[in-house]
Amino acid sequence: MIDECLVVEFSVTGDDCPLAAATRETRTTIDARPPVLRADGNTLLRFSASSPADDLAGALDADDRIRYLHVSRTDSRTNFRCLSKHPCVVHELTDEGFMAESLRYREGVERYTGAVVGHDVLQGVLAAAAETVGVSLERVFPLGEEDDEAVAQRWDLTPAQEAALQTALSMGYFAVPRGATASEVAAELDISKSAFLERLRRGQATLFGQVFG
């Protein structure tokens, strides 16, 4: 049994996959679940973006590599499901043992967060990354038992809510006095002020509900 689990983050640049291309064209941020590779070579994609996302939907719908695009809206998010004929870079890392938990696409740059079990697996994943154009290691750190659910959204936050809370914290939004305004945090997230405050409110409600029961 291997006791050590490592959290790993990769960035990918220069990839011309449909989601990266669409965010580059529309300057939208996409939060995605790990893609599912089908036996026929097509990839199942599930992802979301802040509403309104009409430009993003239009860009994806015009991409010949995207099939069966479905769009739905809930609260401040637009949710997408589709098939892609373009191979996902993350599958190159998955084949070597990388367990992707979340993917983010922003202005053409991809960010993968996941885990590997043991340094031997990590070495194989890093070797695969070195052979894949545009993939670079951003961060790696041990995942302790107390953090076992950190990558898997232990607080049941959406990726967008987590990003809003983390960005607000890092920019000093919760400090006294504030280190950043709501507008500044929203600009960093590339969303509207109202969308940021909505994510913040929902994220805090989820956290407080679980902490205080």
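Next protein, fold it too.
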Amino acid sequence: MKKFSVTFASTAFYLFVTYTPANAASFYCDHRIDNDIDKAICASNQLSELDELLYDVYKTSIEHPDGSYDVDSLKQEQRHWVRDSRNKCRKAKSIADCLVPIYESRIDELLLKGPVPADRKLRISHASGHYDFQLEFVNIKSADEGADRFGRVAVYEKGSIKPLQYIPMKQLYIAVDEENQILTNNAEMYGMQGTINVSDFNFDGEEDVAIRNGNNGSYGGPSYDVFLFSKKQSKFIKSLALSELIESTLGMFDIHPDKRRLSTWEKSGCCWHQYTEYELRKNIPVAVYRMTEEPETVDADDFMFVQTHEALRNGKWETIKIDRVPPE
């Protein structure tokens, strides 16, 4: 595991290049718990993680006020949230299913309104010609505790001192190059992929952004939250479809402006591979071409790869050609 240091303002924090989700709630789980809400949290890894994330962002807001809100009012607001939102799930058929969206909404709300200490901010100015991106960490745990960190990304138009928007991120991942510099705009399969990748993903003339959230993709590959810029709303909007496309394949997709297509690679085991091209229809990727590669035995000592090329025509896949090529 590669370790590196990144300096935020005057303080150096040591981070890892992997993300380890929290598996403990913000309180101690044992047999003495008799509250149905707390029991549900302790029984669920997802809820335990959300409970700890909420504790971290709330604690940060209380301990590092920036004058944008009243701390006593925030404490009262949190008590009301526990009483009026969280505790209403006691009567739900599935307490866990009820709690997850309530927790996620509250975390995002606090991330958008709460402050982040100045020594936990990392500015990225070289990824885009139009925007600066500032990673703002709510929590950065020590090396011994793993790389559990989350927060938000502030997006600035070049030359502006006020953020265009904040993007809440429950997982943030920093990738660096060989010179220990923040890596951006890199999509090398099986290799280096950026912390932030910026390009026109949907070919509408506007820059979009993919923010690295870890290695949650296929075969432990890179994963991203993808945001498309909306001219109508003047902000970046998360694309679940493109985020899920990356997570289900081998990392960041490639972009082909000449064909107005995106492409991905998939694999299974050592020898099955599939290359797919997508057109974006209402910002949803639709597969329109694919090449599937599988091994075929020639004799006891040799084999060839069979490459089947297909195109989507009138809603049906049609074989274009079949090639047989030697292994490289």
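About the second fold: The radius of gyration is 23 Å.
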